[in-house]
């Protein structure tokens, strides 16, 4: 009986369901017209393509664009102009209380709207460069494993040996023209940060685009992850890199060599390979090994050198004293200082000065004191040419007092090493002593702008690696210059990519130094500034790019064909612009074409041949 009742209930429910479906179908047929606009589904855009950072305009999509692209409703109803979007970005940017928070916000913007991101950097370069580059990028690299949320570049590890070409081919863009690679062993003045060094590769290439206006799709940031000797990272459960000590020796060299060969095999022999923040001995070795074999630069050495020499050329112009008559002292003998010293020597030799006379007024001081000829070992052979026949001395204050340098460059990573006594001693001996405190970030600067101006009565020609605020001395506002590589490497890259040489000579960096110094003179002819203001960095990059392109073409090293008659226009045409434009394809009017009359259906006619 129970079974019969169950069957009866099921029949009743099924009947009700069928009746309900039938009624629903009847109602739909009465209310909905037949679907005739099949083209709507044919034209429907994949919203993921529209949301690709390269194409996404966000609320700047017009309502017409939203309707045609079938994305209406995926954005709020408002339509913002680019100016309104930039205001919204700036408001949110300033709302973050820490520089790290601002960096994370900008990375999220970059992941959403590429063109808006770069337009914001270009328009607000003075506000943004300290966030995406020095000094904040140092904090970013220290915390990179903890803020990592999406891939910003390519990670090539020691375990990819023998398969690096395969790894490089996994990058979604195929037309790569410049690669910035670090192994993370010497990030700024912070030491070994391993795979966290991705932050510096990303920061460098962001400035390729923001300042050099090089299209971002051509650029690839890379970390060569060979391990780390940083025990704090090895013990950090959040660390994103290979949790092993660094490989070294032959194994390390083989990894770097395979990477170089793989880049050329994957992207072509004209691919610019930019080495960044390798340990000093390795950096110098690799320049000697690769400079004449690849389209290769090392920004820590060569980029810093061109920027440093530009400051010296500016000091020469301001003081009206030939460069070879200046006494130049380098505090620090790492990649930055020695790079500047080597390029300075090339500049002096180019003026037909003998090497003996060129080096006699150039002094290097490292952790063991002044570099002298009686040293038993030189870690970097290049420094031997600057060794002096003097007694050993470690006290920097005494060396400054005895040797009386007119130009003092610091690249020590030791904050405050340029003491009051040193600064006052330089002011006593020279009307306009040049003081360049290169070390980054700010807390590692050899002296602050305030110290330099206060202890020299405001007469110092001061520049620093990281920004310092203006200083008022005796009612006069003094704005410190920034000796920032951002004045050099974006322009060098722009000139190189426009001309496609197979190798890059040291003369390119001499050209770069002169172009930066020339721009500083022309921009502010009546000011005692060693460098142009940071707000002019994009114009400096273009000026450098044109100078480098002209030099490469004049030397016959360019591989482009035909050689452009107007090189300035050629460089400008290569650049990336952030204008949003329309998201729709171009349309144009067509005339009403002539038509032939058709025969009537009932007539039995034949078409003539």
Automatic annotation (TrEMBL):
The keyword Membrane is annotated on this UniProt entry: no
Official protein name in the record: Malic enzyme
Bound cofactor: record note: Divalent metal cations. Prefers magnesium or manganese.
Keyword field contains Metal-binding: yes
Domain spans labelled Malic enzyme NAD-binding: 301-553
Cellular-component GO terms for this entry: mitochondrion
UniProt keyword annotations, A-Z: Metal-binding
Source organism per UniProt: Drosophila navojoa
């Amino acid at each position: 009986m129970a079974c019969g009742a169950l069957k009866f209930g099921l029949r009743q429910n099924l009947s009700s369901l069928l009746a309900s479906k039938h009624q629903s179908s009847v109602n739909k047929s009465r209310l909905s017209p037949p679907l005739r606009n099949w083209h709507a589904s044919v034209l429907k855009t994949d919203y993921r393509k529209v949301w690709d950072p390269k194409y996404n305009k966000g609320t700047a999509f017009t309502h017409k664009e939203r309707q045609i692209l079938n994305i209406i409703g995926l954005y709020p109803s408002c339509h913002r102009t680019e100016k309104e979007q930039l205001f919204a970005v700036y408001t949110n940017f300033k709302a973050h209380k820490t520089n790290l928070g601002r960096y994370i916000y900008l990375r999220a913007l970059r992941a959403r709207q590429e063109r808006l991101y770069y337009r914001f950097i270009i328009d607000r370069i003075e506000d943004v460069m300290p966030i995406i580059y020095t000094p904040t990028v140092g904090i970013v690299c220290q915390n990179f494993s903890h803020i990592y949320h999406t891939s910003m570049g390519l990670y090539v590890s020691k375990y990819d040996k023998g398969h690096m070409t395969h790894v490089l081919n996994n990058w979604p863009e195929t037309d790569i023209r410049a690669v910035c690679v670090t192994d993370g062993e010497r990030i700024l003045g912070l030491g070994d940060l391993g795979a966290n060094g991705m932050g510096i590769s990303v920061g460098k290439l962001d400035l390729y685009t923001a300042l050099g206006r090089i299209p971002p799709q051509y650029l690839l940031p890379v970390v060569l992850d060979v391990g780390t000797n940083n025990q704090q990272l090895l013990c950090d459960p959040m660390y994103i890199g290979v949790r092993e000590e660094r490989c070294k020796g032959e194994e390390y060299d083989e990894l770097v060599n395979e990477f170089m060969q793989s880049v050329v095999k994957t992207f072509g022999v004209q691919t610019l390979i930019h080495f960044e923040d390798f340990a000093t001995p390795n950096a110098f070795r690799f320049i000697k090994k690769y400079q004449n074999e690849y389209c290769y630069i090392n920004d820590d050495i060569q980029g810093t050198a061109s920027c440093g020499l530009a400051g010296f050329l500016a000091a020469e112009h301001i003081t009206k004293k030939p460069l070879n008559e200046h006494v130049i002292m380098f505090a620090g003998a790492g990649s930055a200082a020695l790079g500047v010293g080597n390029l300075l020597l090339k500049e002096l030799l180019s003026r037909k000065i003998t090497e003996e006379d060129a080096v006699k007024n150039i002094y290097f001081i490292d952790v063991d004191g002044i570099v002298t000829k009686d040293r038993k070992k030189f870690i970097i052979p290049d420094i031997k040419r600057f060794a002096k026949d003097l007694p050993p001395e470690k006290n920097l204050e005494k060396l400054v007092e005895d040797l009386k340098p007119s130009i003092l460059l610091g690249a020590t990573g030791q904050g405050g090493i340029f003491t009051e006594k040193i600064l006052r001693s330089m002011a006593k001996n020279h009307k306009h002593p040049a003081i360049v405190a290169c070390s980054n970030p700010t807390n590692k600067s050899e002296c602050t702008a305030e110290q330099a101006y206060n202890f020299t009565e405001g007469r110092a020609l001061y520049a620093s690696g990281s920004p310092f605020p203006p200083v008022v001395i005796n009612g006069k506002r003094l704005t410190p210059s920034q000796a920032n590589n951002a004045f050099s490497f974006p322009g060098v890259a722009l000139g190189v990519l426009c001309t496609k040489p197979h190798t890059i000579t040291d003369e390119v960096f001499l050209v770069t130094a002169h172009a930066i110094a020339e721009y500083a003179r022309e921009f502010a002819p009546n000011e005692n500034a060693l460098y142009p203001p940071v707000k002019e960095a994009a114009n400096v990059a273009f000026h450098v790019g044109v100078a480098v392109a002209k030099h490469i073409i004049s030397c016959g090293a360019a591989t482009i064909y035909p050689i452009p008659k107007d090189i300035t226009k050629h460089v400008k045409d290569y650049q990336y612009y952030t204008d949003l434009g329309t998201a729709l394809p171009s349309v144009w009017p067509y005339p009403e074409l002539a038509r032939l009359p058709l025969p009537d259906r009932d007539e039995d006619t034949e078409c003539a041949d």
